[in-house]
């Protein structure tokens, strides 16, 4: 699958689904919103889940999120079929070569297949995101089989603390999705400057 496709559409979900149910926004999300293009990345991630969530009936999809030439994209791979399995996995390293040279990595997302009903993060999920926590603005997301989409803190080192850090940012269930056109981005602040530019 060629992930070098740019996604200029943004999906916004029904009001009231962007924050954790009955909870304040965690400090790590507040800090990221001030220093990173969090809203733009959140919107891109919801768009990705709107596409790949419904396809994730019996396999996982995974994507590295990146900024490149003023747009956000995802380097997307699909895992093997895991229907009626207790667990499902995907080799995320296979997504790395799909990231364009010179792109700024901003995070990752993955789906949990509907066939295995996995509602929580796995140790591999937590470990994989934590391994990339040194990357500025790195964000981590996953979707549950019921369509709910969560962000979690990639600095967490255990499943319980990562689960506690989750923030509900939407749902890929079709009845909640409203598509609009993206306007006004800050992505150029986070993407590498073009070769030969004065910013190099």
Question: What are the defining features of this structure?
Answer:
200 residues; alpha+beta; two-stranded antiparallel ribbon; 4 helices; 24% strand; disordered C terminus
SS elements, strand count: 8
Reported by name, the CATH topology is Cytidine Deaminase, domain 2
Distance between the termini: 32 Å
Radius of gyration: 16 Å
Beta strand %: 15-25%
The number of helical runs is: 4
* Largest sheet, spatial ordering of strands: 3-2-4-5-6-7
Low-confidence segments, ≥5 residues, pLDDT <50? 1-22, 175-200
**Any idea what the CATH architecture is?**
3-Layer(aba) Sandwich
Q: Given this structure, which CATH class is correct?
A: Alpha Beta
The biggest beta sheet reads: 6 strands, mixed
The chain-level mean pLDDT equals 78
Helix content: 10-25%
Write the layout of secondary structure elements.
Blueprint: E1 9-13, H1 27-35, H2 38-52, E2 61-68, E3 71-78, E4 104-111, H3 123-130, E5 139-143, E6 148-152, H4 159-164, E7 167-171, E8 177-181
Parallel strand pairs: 4-5
Antiparallel strand pairs: 1-8, 2-3, 2-4, 5-6, 6-7
């Amino acid at each position: 699958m060629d992930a070098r496709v740019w996604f200029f559409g943004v999906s916004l979900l029904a009001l009231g689904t962007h924050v954790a149910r009955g909870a304040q926004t965690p400090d790590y999300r507040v800090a990221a919103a001030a220093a990173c293009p969090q809203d733009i990345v959140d919107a891109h991630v919801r768009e990705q889940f709107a596409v790949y969530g419904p396809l994730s009936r019996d396999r996982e999809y995974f994507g590295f999120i990146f900024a490149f030439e003023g747009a956000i994209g995802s380097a997307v791979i699909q895992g093997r079929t895991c229907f009626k399995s207790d667990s499902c996995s995907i080799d995320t390293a296979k997504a790395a070569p799909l990231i364009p040279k010179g792109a700024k990595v901003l995070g990752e997302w993955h789906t949990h297949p509907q066939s295995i009903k996995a509602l929580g993060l796995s140790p591999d999920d937590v470990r994989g995101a934590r391994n990339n926590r040194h990357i500025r603005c790195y964000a981590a997301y996953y979707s549950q089989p019921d369509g709910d989409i969560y962000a979690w803190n990639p600095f967490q080192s255990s499943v319980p603390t990562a689960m506690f850090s989750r923030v509900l940012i939407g749902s890929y269930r079709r009845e909640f999705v409203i598509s609009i056109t993206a306007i006004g981005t800050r992505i150029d602040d986070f993407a590498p400057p073009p070769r030969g530019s004065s910013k190099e």
